[in-house]
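Archive transcription. Copying these from loose printouts into the bound notebook so they stop getting lost. Printout 1 of 2:
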Amino acid sequence: MEVSTASEQVIIGFQESWNALLRLGPAALALNVALSALVVGAAFGVGLLVRRLLKRGARAVPGPADAEKTIRTRRVTQVTWAVFETGLVLAAFFALASIWGFDLLGWLTAGLGQRVVESVVRIAILAVVTFAAAELATLLVNRVLARMAHHKAGGVRREAQLNTIGPLLHGVARGVIIIMGAMMILAEIGLEIGPLLAGAGVIGLAIGFGAQTLVKDFLTGIFLISEDILAVGDVVEISGSSGVVEQMTIRTVRLRALDGTLHVLPYGEAQIIHNMTKVFSYHVVELGVSYESDIDKAFEVMAEVVEEMRADPDLGPKILEPLEVMDVSALADSGVVLRGRIKTPPGAQWGVGRAFNRRIKQAWDAAGVEIPYPHMHLVMPQPAQAPAAGGSA
């Protein structure tokens, strides 16, 4: 058979090379050692040079320096270095084998060796092309979304929505490309793809029935993003957990709380969503004054403070309208509760509220408006009076 003939040829070739190696004289042996050291040194030097050039090229890649670009550039650099390093090691190995009399290149270019090499080369090319296509798809999605964010109306909200849907598009595109590449590699190995596809369909159907919660989470996330209910950067409350939306994956939303806690919630748990930064926000003012204070004067001072804040170059852009007076909200035990609200851009209500509280305290003190606080009245007991002299018993 051809396989056994090829195997015999390999064995015979190695025996001849080994016998030729044993017949080497001292001078030829020393020359071979020197040439081997030269090949190893040259390979090491070339590898070190190429590695430095790859690092320098990665730093020179154009585009904004963000975490995603850093991860993607590092991944491309690592894969490029792995491919080059493999080729360099193989080249050095063949050169060393040729120096010592082993004709590996001749065996690999004929018969069984040729077919093996061709198959390995095609598989390697498919793997590299699959990786390159996945990275190119990610790059194209990022470019398209960035261009849409700059040229479409909607401002910051539009950009946040595009940043939210970006990772989903990345995941879908990379998944499709990787599956197609894996199928082509399996076909190159010699496996039948048809039965694999049929079996994958049956397994997928079984997983679909068993993973209904996963499917529900995925579909809920698609609707949340398509209806623009929340986006990356929003401050929301979901199922009792609140924080900034840090990331939205295929099936989960991740909230970063004020104290740094990361809440990971499946979309299926997002039955009720409180979005505190959608389109605009309000800082609701609820402050108490004593019953002896002039309520109209207190409201007047509050409106003046808001107007002063609107005139401030730092706070002015964060206040969209004058103070909306909502009158007296309650008559409490120790004072009268006044209510109003200040309209702000999304997410600015907390900073505006803190600045307003500081200024209203100073303004009310200057205007004589008293802020109530609990008082304690100490009532001393009166001494008992003695009965009058000569009184009846």
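Printout 2 of 2:
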Amino acid sequence: MSNLDIQKIREDFPILKRQVNGKPLIYLDNGATTQKPKLVIDAIMSYYTDMNSNVHRGVHYLSQISTDAFEVTRRKLQEFINAAHDYEVIITKGTTDSINLVATCYGREFVHAGDEIIVSAMEHHSNIVPWQMLCEERGATLKVIPMNEEGELDMEAYKALLNEKTKLVSVNYVSNALGTINPVREIIQLAHAQGVPVLLDAAQAVQHIKIDVQELDVDFLAFSGHKMYGPTGVGVLYGKAEWLNKIPPYQGGGDMIKDVTFEKTTYNELPFKFEAGTPNIEAGIALNAAIDYINDLGIENIKAYEDELLAYATEQLSTVEGIRFIGTAKEKSSVISFVVDGTHPYDIGVILDKLGIAVRTGHHCAQPVMDQFHIPGTVRASLAVYNTKEEIDALVAGVKRATAMLV
């Protein structure tokens, strides 16, 4: 923790100075979205006051500087995840958009009747529903890697699921509902041994864990800007060039074409082949500032601090009578989900909100996870680099107060 000045970091986030219900805001819903440092907010303002123009199309000055700024972000993203080429970085609306792109385009080209897609039992709905839709459309089958009561994947079952019918494996790097860090290297290696490509949903990983797509040898990787201190409405799909060149475009429109006639359209080269229409320009440019912010702090420093905070929160919450943690994997990242005997998660969340403490309650877009544990939902506290032990203490006191009122 000595590597980071947390109080100085907190000064970078204007919203942390506000009050909620007359109490200082304690924001523990970072798995849903992180707050934004002033650096990012200023970048959005700068776009609209200094360079507002469309990108990739204009010869005039504002269009040129907007395009340059937008493409700087692409190159920064390439470095951030260590992609081999900047054209392997597709700018999308977010993780959901990225996964749907692969499901639609890869599925259209490579998935047929009788084929199989593998996901895991702990996926977010965004990494379940697109594959269900694809399987229904193509006559394929969705297979599910089971997990144990600790919230860890059954890797022996995964090995048994892989076969000559498997066309793609799509799993999360970190579970949004449980905090489990999955053994993604082993998942990828086992799939590749049978010639099967892998997509990683890194929405809950990229802000906590250093990701090197070449070291992982992953085929596709999806994540969102708004969960890594950046704006909403922008995200990334990384894809190996060999796959991106093999699959058809996602949408038709401006920028994804080279030539259009009524007889035939010739598609643009990567990455523009997958970027139809005007992008969320200001968000794309401001994402550059978010990456700079993470790089300045150091992703390893962030992880070390958050791991210590997670251990402290788990220890302190264990003192709550009747608490049951949902997701107790040995490898976890920045998420604590729990229920308390005799209470409903929603009721605890409402009482915590009255105390100025923001947590997430419900199924967290992971209903199959809740079904496995036979619960309607959990209280989820998800951590970021600006959270403190004092905030954890307030959370624990708030949960104890809530359970005293409810039980």
